[in-house]
Design brief:
Layout (H helix, E strand, L loop, with lengths): L7 H11 L16 H19 L3 H7 L2 E2 L5 E2 L4 H10 L18 H14 L1 H20 L2 H13 L2 E6 L15 E4 L5 E11 L8 E8 L12 E6 L1 E3 L5 E4 L2 E6 L10 E13 L6 H37 L23 H33 L3 H36 L11 H9 L8 H12 L6 H17 L6 H24 L4 H35 L6 H17 L3 H9 L4 H5 L10
Helix pairs in contact: 1-2, 1-9, 2-5, 5-6, 5-8, 5-9, 6-7, 6-8, 8-9, 8-10, 8-11, 9-10, 9-15, 9-16, 10-11, 10-12, 10-13, 10-15, 12-15, 13-14, 13-15, 14-15, 14-16, 14-17, 15-16, 15-17
């Protein structure tokens, strides 16, 4: 059976040392985030997820969820009790506003918990995870009455929430949705239609489920400009603020899917269900994007999560499994064979996983800090910079993070050889569970086009220019360090590849938009490679500062320097190859007719 130990030491290193979160104590919401508080939250979160949720992961995968004739859904054994423990321990309230019962701690701590819960049990994590995004949209677009009605119980975890976008005939192209919202004359609307792929759409964990539903009102434009957002509770809230009459929304079926079996991914049928508009008419997509952006960052964290749990188990297996001898001679002369850990190809896969996981964790937590600074920084200039950076990085965190997370999970399965392919060891579940992260909340092709088609050019390229300047500054400050000069030089070269690729887009995408589409995936990966290199430079500098003291944890910090050097020599060169692919353009990619793809008999 696979195991999981939350990487609390790594998290504390990033939050306390690299980000120095305590130094932001003068900002609203940060005053309670002392190092003692941070350490307590991180350690207790790790303990809860490792001890309570991880043991349920295989159970959830094997049992799945059960839909009953009345449309109700039962979650796997242990999920309901674990969810109650989650709520009673206050984990759902970490970053919620105090006004509605939250602790209002920085999002950095919320992201740390998101990593742990997703690594321990991704299917379980999606129940409270979707609620967080729904609450964010509600707080951004709802009336004060709507906020007071729903937010406190969603933040407490007593109620959960969903997002309802996709329909059988349309996914990303939301302008094609057919769900209708007919005004009833009393301020409410009758919602009719079918939504599919609704994560946590029906379950037995909470007493109410608050659905946020995209629909079109009569006469609305037949495009994305005609979409409105509605709040549709499973049970209509009565005058006492409690679940009352059952609403006209039911689970028609649970999707049979490749992974995340413990989460109820539902087809939801709306049959004149009562809903209330959230925000302005025909402005629903903007309100839903608040939820989608939060979800995309969370999905990027899921890429890290599955890579991390697969890595931890692969390391254990590689140290125990004996096959063959080390190329340099027997490592253990008293045994018939050496642990496979001694073989360079196994070590390559483990090192690739180690350096990706540690830098991706740093990027996600750094990104969470930008979310905080967008709202809490002292000056408008600082808030704008943080908003620009996290807007630019969101598709990279989601797209590159989940592409690589899936690759890492695959490689960790490979470490096991044949044992990785059988259910007993749990590795094949990590691969299956990680695959969905590349698809939902906008496929990674959509993320790449969002980055290249929207974010690069936004506001005259202000965000990407700030990104380049930030990394240039980090490189310049590291070049005089003997321990980091080579990392800085290699990062500078990779950043140069990204700058050149950006310029190529500027020169070639306007004349032929397919050039942008053909190169967007490669550009997203170039940016991911560069950004994780930036994280390694920051972590390396932090490690050097600690090694200059009388620290007793020298091995930890020295490993950071070795890992930074490994990343620089093994990952950063890929930016050049990807740039050359990007600059190949779209001619040959788009040249063949559709008939040329058909297989001849």
């Amino acid at each position: 059976m696979p195991t999981y130990t939350a990487p609390t030491r790594e998290t504390r290193f990033i939050i306390n040392e690299m980000l120095d979160l305590a130094s932001y104590g003068n900002l609203p919401g940060f005053e309670n985030a002392t190092q003692d508080m941070i350490d307590t939250v991180v350690n207790e979160a790790g303990k809860f997820c490792s001890e309570v949720l991880a043991p349920l992961n295989q159970i959830g995968d094997e049992q799945g969820c059960t839909r009953h004739e009345d449309g109700s859904v039962t979650t796997p054994d242990g999920f309901k009790e674990a969810y109650q423990s989650l709520v009673e321990s206050g984990w759902t309230t970490l970053t919620g506003p105090e006004e509605f019962g939250g602790q209002e701690l920085p999002h950095v701590l919320g992201f740390a918990f998101e990593e742990y819960i997703g690594t321990a049990n991704q299917a379980f994590a999606m129940y409270p995870g979707l609620t967080g995004g729904a609450t964010a949209a509600l707080l951004a677009a709802g009336t004060q009455e709507q906020k007071e009605m729903y937010a406190p119980k969603m933040i407490s975890g007593e109620w959960s929430g969903t997002m309802n976008l996709t329909e059988p005939h349309c996914g990303t192209d939301l302008g094609m949705i057919r769900t209708k919202a007919e005004p009833t004359g009393d301020g409410s609307y009758a919602i009719t239609g079918t939504k599919i792929f609704i994560s946590a759409g029906e379950h037995d964990l909470t007493s109410n489920i608050i659905h946020l539903v995209l629909a079109k009102t009569p006469g609305a434009p037949d495009s994305s400009k005609g979409i409105s957002l509605f709040v549709v509770p499973k049970f209509i809230v009565d005058e006492n603020g409690e679940p009352g009459e059952r609403n006209g929304v039911t689970c028609g079926s649970i999707e049979k899917k490749m992974g995340i079996h413990g989460n109820a991914t539902c087809v939801l049928n709306y049959d004149g269900a009562t809903g209330w508009m959230l925000g302005e008419e025909n402005k629903g997509l903007a309100a839903m994007f608040v939820m989608m952006n939060a979800a995309r960052l969370g999905v990027g964290m899921q890429g890290l999560a599955q890579a991390e749990v697969a890595y931890q188990n692969a390391v254990t297996y590689a140290l125990d499994r004996r096959q063959g001898r080390a190329l340099t001679g027997p490592a253990d002369k008293d045994a018939q064979a050496d642990p496979i850990f001694v073989h360079p190809d196994v070590r390559r896969m483990l090192m690739d996983a180690k350096v990706f996981n540690e830098s991706m964790r740093a990027l996600c937590l750094w990104g969470a800090l930008q979310v905080d600074l967008t709202h809490k920084a002292q000056t408008e200039e600082e808030r704008q910079l943080a908003d620009d950076l996290i807007g630019l990085m969101t598709p990279v965190i989601k797209g590159y993070g989940t592409d690589k997370g899936y690759d890492i999970a695959n490689n960790m399965q490979q470490v096991y050889g044949g044992h990785g392919y059988v259910t007993e060891w749990g590795m094949e579940q990590f691969v299956r569970d990680s695959r969905i992260a590349m698809i939902y909340e906008g496929t990674n092709g959509v993320q790449a086009m969002d980055l290249c088609g929207r974010k690069l050019a936004s506001k005259g390229g202000r965000a990407v220019q700030a990104f380049f300047a930030m990394i240039d500054e980090e490189i310049a400050s590291a070049k005089d360090s003997p321990e980091l000069a080579d990392v800085a030089t290699k990062l500078e070269k990779a950043l140069g590849e990204q700058k050149a690729a950006t310029m190529w887009f500027m020169q070639n995408a306007m004349a032929n938009p397919n050039n942008l589409g053909a190169g967007a995936h490669h550009y997203m990966h170039i940016m991911g490679i560069v950004t994780l290199g930036f994280m390694w430079l920051k972590m390396g500098k932090t490690a050097l500062q600690q090694l200059a003291t009388d620290t007793e944890d020298r091995a930890f910090y020295e490993a950071k320097l070795t890992s930074a050097a490994y990343y620089a020599e093994r990952f950063l060169p890929d930016a050049g190859a990807l740039r050359r692919k990007l600059e190949a353009g779209s001619d040959n990619m788009m040249k063949l007719s559709a008939e040329a793809f058909a297989t001849a008999a």
